[in-house]
């Protein structure tokens, strides 16, 4: 039994977003695969969905969101929408971003059914690559090691 998955699925079930047009990525995917717990649920959504949520200042379920800008080692990343609190008790915060091309990103995902939810998840290989090309943060290096260990153990 995967002990890390329930907070992710609880959050996804209760955030009110159309999961057919969202991509789960980052630590959420690691939790789905049982690699480590997620700290939040990272989702890529269409620009129109992002703008609608930004204008309403809330997710479809009424949970408030705020704009968050990130700057790491002199690089400023595009703004994200983040719930300041957990979506539901036992759930996690939601972190929304916009990809350059959602359709292109959807074509590069694994479709997984998790606790009755059908999810588009960025592949572990893609997450490992993104973390390898990233900022060199210690937590990313640890995630790369954990992904490699998981992939080795499941390929046997």
Structural commentary:
The protein has 156 residues and is α+β, with helices and mostly antiparallel strands. It has a single domain, classed as Beta Polymerase, domain 2 (2-Layer Sandwich). It is 37% helix and 24% strand. It has six helices and nine strands, in the order H-E-H-E-H-E-E-E-E-E-H-E-E-H-H. A seven-stranded mixed beta sheet has the order 3-6-7-2-1-9-8. It has a two-stranded antiparallel sheet with strand order 4-5. Helix 5 runs antiparallel to helix 6. The longest helix is centred in the C-terminal third of the chain and has 17 residues, at 138-154. The protein starts with a helix and ends with a helix. The mean pLDDT is 90.
CA-CA gap between termini: 19 Å
H/E order of the elements?
Answer: HEHEHEEEEEHEEHH
Total number of beta strands: 9
- Name the average pLDDT: 90
Strand order of the largest sheet: 3-6-7-2-1-9-8
Largest sheet: number of strands, sense, barrel closure: 7 strands, mixed
What CATH architecture would you give?
Answer: 2-Layer Sandwich
